[in-house]
Amino acid sequence: MASSSIKSLDDLLAEGVAGRGVLVRSDLNVPLDDEGNITDPGRIIASVPTLQALSDAGAKVVVAAHLGRPKGSPDPKFSLAPVAKALGDKLGRHVQLAGDVVGSDALARAEGLTDGDILLLENIRFDARETSKDDADRSSLARALAELVSAPDGSAGAFVSDGFGVVHRKQASVYDVAAVLPHYAGRLVATEVKVLGQLTAAGERPYAVVLGGSKVSDKLAVIENLATKADSLLIGGGMCFTFLAAQGYSVGDSLLEESMVETCHRLLDTYADVLHLPVDIVVAPKFAADSPTETVAADQIPDGTMGLDIGPESVKRFTALLSNAKTIFWNGPMGVFEFAAFSAGTRGVAEAIVAATGKGAFSVVGGGDSAAAVRQLGLPEDGFSHISTGGGASLEYLEGKTLPGIDVLLH
User: Strands of 306-310's sheet, edge to edge?
Assistant: First the structure.
């Protein structure tokens, strides 16, 4: 996917943005605990460079973002209020939060912006048009968003796409708004496209891919695509049990996609020299932090237990495969890392990637739970070459799919 013909934030800054309205689509979809506290600010931190550059250059910045999956109408549980405060703290300046998306409060606040001000619109998904399948619906929201950054004389503002985590979505604030405003790629989107391009190009070998997470079906396309490119593809997490079942092993009460067993059997036959499965598993009788654990061979999972992490021998084998890799892509934890008893597999593999990176390997963490695991387990973020902010977008890019939010920037 070429990025050379996409205009960049630097192009926009060179044109001059002082006093000009600029709409930025950021990805501020951060996890919250039950009290509404942000548990991982990674995406907020990643959005700062673009917003800081525009503010410092005197733009009147309006930010669109979503949080969670509201049902197309306002829901206090998904308000961006905690995000506005955290974003302001990271930027070192006040960030206003509009009381609506493109309603009277957003319009009034946008009109009142002075050079360098930043306004965050309320959760864009509070407006059902954002995710509508109807082109006309999305287009009407896009025009309303564009109006927020238009000058009083009617001259258009600009749009900066900086939410890489949503560029695989054909949504109003991601895709349609680029049709009505001059458009540019923000710092984050430009970096992500460049880094993922390195993974799809003929990078340095050996090339190792580590895939975890719960479902084979979610990763099938990327497995099939990368198995032809990688020298080794290591499978962990909940998805490994469908592969183990395909080998004829009993997996007890472990996560299993019955409908994918035959597919996994075919993959194991086709890519026998590339695919690597765990050789031991940490099992427990129930999914709970305090459930008693036992480590068993991968072909000896007892009935009445479920696998919740890869075992120490698997970590050793995976580490050996990663130790000489020159290019590494990791997406998905090896187990239920949120529970200390089932975090050793993810930690071990992550530490192996950090060690390989220290020896010169190019390593990319593919967003989502993997990025959260890095931070939650206290691993050094600078121990990886790049930590992506977009799990689904990263995978779709590596599958070779066209990402609507990137494709539209080319036109």
Answer: 294-297, 280-284, 306-310
